[in-house]
């Protein structure tokens, strides 16, 4: 025995003796120095923990508070701003929300007794350190969030951002991330139905790997993470708990083991977790059977902060108390300390609250699926979270102080002085192509550029077919899955964000991200219903970054109110920067829409009907601030982003949904990065059908082809429906322009007075870029 | 009513799709999909068995290597040897090869990536229990999606398969043969490096068929690239009714 008189040495399965810092011991040794700074806690935060507990925390308690009060778990820098979402959500917007912010994921009612839940989360930093496992476990984590709502996960998609496509490190990061997403998601049996791949120098040292999952359930099957019912049992099930994913807590461990170098070698496992998609697949099926059998009172996934998070959140959401015997947790490493067990981020674990009489049935279902399940504790009415280790109490805390009452910061917010110069540097001075040959060359250069070229190299590594309900997937504007096979009811989901727009004007730029995701859902014929987000920003300690963040939140919340669709949940990722240089502010916005019958979805490609007229809906203005053209051709970022008009977006969506419902639209494609030229090329290539385009008289072909004005869509309408459709647009006040016809006999995109492109040439140019870089 | 069993191993993914394909083929009540559980040595009186795609037991060792030892597979092998029609799709094909019901093996794709794409196949043999609804030489479009899809066997085995007409499907590229439109040709290489462009084979009786592409994902143009895959499920119903 080397510790003080109150410590106890326990022989843990024959492993090295572990000194346990019990509550009793902590109370008796108030002066014992603790490495709270190394764990990321500030002096005042540590003092507050001591004040809450009336003594110093034990090692285990310190581990819990430090992870739960981290930026990632506590939202301490963003909380004051995120409140704005709640303040701007009207009762009308809440009408279809069954669960919202604060739950594992938001849930919306899509009709016919079906509910859908969806959420995006970031896994940025792990994916830079270890691209394959970082991205893989990002998928695993978001899928468990959805599962914890009682839903069957039905689709995933991944918004990704990388450094320059030709940078050496991108060759390391991108293939690993893509393989990780595919390796995990494909093995899990979830179709990957879309996402984004964007390249920009600002992401070179800090790629963004966001993961979205959609789940469906019957409305009555919604499960919330509540630990109600004193005497109910707490069951940990899924994978065993190991030393993976233990970040800062290894500081505690090495402190405990001070001087014992031989004991610390095992601590140096990578702090990025390792995923096992097979275990997760089995866990999904096991959970769904448990739900169906009515054996679950409350459930919580184990993600960031592991058991610390699951136990404190379950306890504080229920009757307020829980007792856990930590030595019952099945381990896969020897000699783990209580702090390590509480902080481990081992994947593929869930925690359920079960009535005592259902425990045997619960364990039987787990045994059927070969899932390890262990009763580790029970719900109490003490208002305390008590955790014991071989009979010694190592944690005794009010659970809300861990899970919900962490520190809240009002970080300084200041618009950067450099913003004015950025906005003043408009793209007007940039040389524009005008001669037909220049325009031709510009179009080819644009469609081959990394941000506009085909994503097939990436998406061909993802299974989009599994489960047999995928109606639309990349390169469609939105992914769409059928939810109900009888009625054909389904959902469409899109995520979007142009970080350059947000950099130029965070408020407008974020509304443009919302507008694009909303439009992408509407062009498939679905009605937008709900919003989620993943707000990726630099350091919150930089007032300029906090200004971007505040503006983005306000822009998104105000935009949602104007569109009448609620934000149901979200995620914040700060500290995305390299040295002092932050990434482009990247508030990824996801919009989910509902379609009552997926058979009337609008496809992207031309040629679905024999004779089609091409119409451009909306207005085209000379808007090149933050555009792909300025970026690709001139390497320029300056001026203001395109104007946003959400009333117009709403009108456009209504027209598209009406067009789909009445069979008036045979193809539709959103206009965004790359403008009309990009939309024409993609619609022609996807449909393998040519067209003839005639721009309006007097139009500047450069502006018409490449401007990125918002609120526009390219549609093909059957000639028989043309008059009815244009009359509807006129009656509703939506500007439209007839810009040509689809030609089923043609294998070319012909833009009159500009150029003609053979589809084969366009395809080779559009599809050649990523294979050339990454094969 | 014809009963077609669909096996679920831990890690099986396309069992719901295979069952749906059976239901579509037997829309008029002619067929029922019967779930079979890996741990039960019981085929529940089915008339045919589908071993569907996925990653059985995670496939961390070698695709299909563990699944072949599942209790249900002993029954499948026994029934197959007595003439019960068996179809192995993707992981199911790998499992049938591991079980010795079909020759050869499936290795990692030549490009080392998981490949998911709409793939044209040529039907080389329409005399099996699973392909009688197709014309010989027909070209069908079905999804291909796998990590380990490169069919290999020794030269003698390949020659035997060719000689006995036991190559059922071959990969063809989406371009007409010069001067032969609309016939598609084999192209320089198969999408995963499979020897002799082999996508699917049969045993000598024509009752056991394995293929890497996924006909069960091509039963409805709404959710697949075509409905070309439905023919396989209609074929086996014909074969069972005729028997």
TrEMBL record, chain A:
<dbReference type="Pfam" id="PF18072">
    <property type="entry name" value="FGAR-AT_linker"/>
</dbReference>
<keyword id="KW-0547">Nucleotide-binding</keyword>
<dbReference type="Pfam" id="PF02769">
    <property type="entry name" value="AIRS_C"/>
</dbReference>
<protein>
    <recommendedName>
        <fullName>Phosphoribosylformylglycinamidine synthase subunit PurL</fullName>
        <ecNumber>6.3.5.3</ecNumber>
    </recommendedName>
</protein>
<feature type="binding site">
    <location>
        <position position="571"/>
    </location>
    <ligand>
        <name>Mg(2+) 1</name>
    </ligand>
</feature>
<dbReference type="InterPro" id="IPR010918">
    <property type="entry name" value="PurM-like_C_dom"/>
</dbReference>
<feature type="binding site">
    <location>
        <position position="573"/>
    </location>
    <ligand>
        <name>substrate</name>
    </ligand>
</feature>
<feature type="binding site">
    <location>
        <position position="119"/>
    </location>
    <ligand>
        <name>ATP</name>
    </ligand>
</feature>
<comment type="similarity">
    <text>Belongs to the FGAMS family.</text>
</comment>
<feature type="binding site">
    <location>
        <begin position="345"/>
        <end position="347"/>
    </location>
    <ligand>
        <name>substrate</name>
    </ligand>
</feature>
<feature type="binding site">
    <location>
        <position position="144"/>
    </location>
    <ligand>
        <name>substrate</name>
    </ligand>
</feature>
<dbReference type="InterPro" id="IPR036921">
    <property type="entry name" value="PurM-like_N_sf"/>
</dbReference>
<feature type="binding site">
    <location>
        <position position="301"/>
    </location>
    <ligand>
        <name>Mg(2+) 2</name>
    </ligand>
</feature>
<dbReference type="InterPro" id="IPR016188">
    <property type="entry name" value="PurM-like_N"/>
</dbReference>
<feature type="binding site">
    <location>
        <begin position="122"/>
        <end position="125"/>
    </location>
    <ligand>
        <name>substrate</name>
    </ligand>
</feature>
<feature type="domain" description="PurM-like C-terminal">
    <location>
        <begin position="230"/>
        <end position="389"/>
    </location>
</feature>
<feature type="domain" description="Phosphoribosylformylglycinamidine synthase linker">
    <location>
        <begin position="34"/>
        <end position="76"/>
    </location>
</feature>
<feature type="domain" description="PurM-like N-terminal">
    <location>
        <begin position="477"/>
        <end position="595"/>
    </location>
</feature>
<feature type="binding site">
    <location>
        <position position="145"/>
    </location>
    <ligand>
        <name>Mg(2+) 2</name>
    </ligand>
</feature>
<feature type="active site" description="Proton acceptor">
    <location>
        <position position="123"/>
    </location>
</feature>
<keyword id="KW-0963">Cytoplasm</keyword>
<feature type="domain" description="PurM-like C-terminal">
    <location>
        <begin position="609"/>
        <end position="746"/>
    </location>
</feature>
From TrEMBL, chain B:
<keyword id="KW-0963">Cytoplasm</keyword>
<keyword id="KW-0315">Glutamine amidotransferase</keyword>
<dbReference type="InterPro" id="IPR010075">
    <property type="entry name" value="PRibForGlyAmidine_synth_PurQ"/>
</dbReference>
<comment type="subunit">
    <text>Part of the FGAM synthase complex composed of 1 PurL, 1 PurQ and 2 PurS subunits.</text>
</comment>
<keyword id="KW-0067">ATP-binding</keyword>
<dbReference type="InterPro" id="IPR029062">
    <property type="entry name" value="Class_I_gatase-like"/>
</dbReference>
<comment type="pathway">
    <text>Purine metabolism; IMP biosynthesis via de novo pathway; 5-amino-1-(5-phospho-D-ribosyl)imidazole from N(2)-formyl-N(1)-(5-phospho-D-ribosyl)glycinamide: step 1/2.</text>
</comment>
<feature type="active site">
    <location>
        <position position="214"/>
    </location>
</feature>
<keyword id="KW-0378">Hydrolase</keyword>
<comment type="function">
    <text>Part of the phosphoribosylformylglycinamidine synthase complex involved in the purines biosynthetic pathway. Catalyzes the ATP-dependent conversion of formylglycinamide ribonucleotide (FGAR) and glutamine to yield formylglycinamidine ribonucleotide (FGAM) and glutamate. The FGAM synthase complex is composed of three subunits. PurQ produces an ammonia molecule by converting glutamine to glutamate. PurL transfers the ammonia molecule to FGAR to form FGAM in an ATP-dependent manner.</text>
</comment>
<feature type="active site" description="Nucleophile">
    <location>
        <position position="90"/>
    </location>
</feature>
<keyword id="KW-0547">Nucleotide-binding</keyword>
<protein>
    <recommendedName>
        <fullName>Phosphoribosylformylglycinamidine synthase subunit PurQ</fullName>
        <ecNumber>6.3.5.3</ecNumber>
        <ecNumber>3.5.1.2</ecNumber>
    </recommendedName>
</protein>
<dbReference type="Pfam" id="PF13507">
    <property type="entry name" value="GATase_5"/>
</dbReference>
<feature type="active site">
    <location>
        <position position="216"/>
    </location>
</feature>
<keyword id="KW-0658">Purine biosynthesis</keyword>
<keyword id="KW-0436">Ligase</keyword>
